[in-house]
Amino acid sequence: MTEILREIGTIARALDSISNIEFKEYDLTKGQYLYLVRICEQPGIIQEKLAELLKVDRTTAARAIQKLELQGFIEKRDDPDNKKIKRLFATEQGMATYPVIKRENDHSNRVALEGLSSTEATQLLQLLQRVRSNVEKDWEWVKKGNKRSY
């Protein structure tokens, strides 16, 4: 049983490493592509929601967002109803880069699921979603300053 999370971690690190290498030519490093994809797919998302979606702390998200903004991939806009809220949008440069990231993601999915039937792939997705849901409960608990009991 303990090998399952190790396998998931190994897969995640390998895919992240591949993406970081392949997106280097676009000046996207250290997982910035993850932020750009979510902003392209959810125009107007706020920073806090993006951090929650990616399961990172606010400081990590703020650094990545700031870098993407400086590089011209995204822009912040005032919320029309609440000037304190900044909404995130992809620029033309960000939108032009999105299909490249999407293509790489689709390829990685095909490679990762090679040899699995569509039923097996669906079952794997459902099981991983349940695992994610379980982990999210702990993530929320610890994020609020609590400690898990082992």
Q: Care to describe what's here?
A:
This protein has 150 residues and is mainly α. It has 6 helices and 3 strands, in the order H-H-E-H-H-E-E-H-H. The chain has a 3-stranded antiparallel sheet with strand order 1-3-2. Helix 2 packs across helix 5 and helix 3 crosses helix 4. It starts with a helix and ends in a 7-residue tail after the last helix.
Helix content: 55-70%
Oligomerization state of this entry? single chain
Structural class by helix and strand composition: mainly alpha
Morphology call: globular
Report the sheet with the most strands, covering strand number, pairing sense and barrel closure: 3 strands, antiparallel
Which stretches are poorly predicted, pLDDT < 50 over at least 5 residues?
Answer: none
The side-by-side strand order for the widest beta sheet comes to 1-3-2
Spatial extent as radius of gyration? 17 Å
Mean pLDDT: 93
Order of helices and strands: HHEHHEEHH
Overall number of strands? 3
